[in-house]
Amino acid sequence: MTRFGARCVGAAVALLSAGWTMEAAAADFNYGQRGGYTAVNQPLTYSWMGPYLGINVGYAWGSVDNNWTKPSGVAGGAQLGYNFQQGPWVFGLEGDIQATGADDTFAPWKFSNPWFGTVRGRGGYSFNNILVYGTFGLAFGELRANTFGLTESHTNVGWTAGLGAEVGLTRNWSAKVEYLYVDLANSNFAITGMSNGYSFGTFRAGVNYRF
Questions:
Q1: CATH code of the domain covering residue 67
Q2: 135, 169 in Cβ contact below 8 A?
Q3: pLDDT under 50 in the chain at which residues?
Q4: Per residue in 85-117, pLDDT tens?
Q5: Which has the closest alpha carbon to 91: 119, 118, 121, 120?
């Protein structure tokens, strides 16, 4: 995890550095009046307004309530959203669905989280083509338990919150890094005789295509 975390921080720094470089270069281009960089009798500014679709990949790590297991693994999926913009302020709604390889075994129990999704509000402040934001909303996903050849799974609903940064690379393309904390509420598992839930953090990077 320490080596992975260092790589993620390095990727985030590189992404933001690239954004500042492209922002400085943007003044040499004129993309017109719609989307991307728009001229309104002032230096060119970046527009975050409108719908977008993208993909992401990252890593999830957490723990199961009332159990010793700590599922972790690679996670990846797709997101869909819409932004509204008023001056430098950007607000929107985003939903995503993720497949994960997060699992862990502590004999005789194995817990895994095959998938999860979120529906969140986003709000942030843009520095031209760099957007920093917070996000909060609904989370849902599957928690699966295995023991002695028996399997039981529950779809739990909970909440999520996080922070992120997004860099506009061109008029239509942007890249982002994001951290989310996800808490999938407890439910009663017959094979454990306990109330189990899964809470975890996920750090991910992704790209969006904005229409």
A1: 2.40.160.20
A2: no
A3: 1-43
A4: 999 999 999 999 999 999 999 999 999 999 999
A5: 121
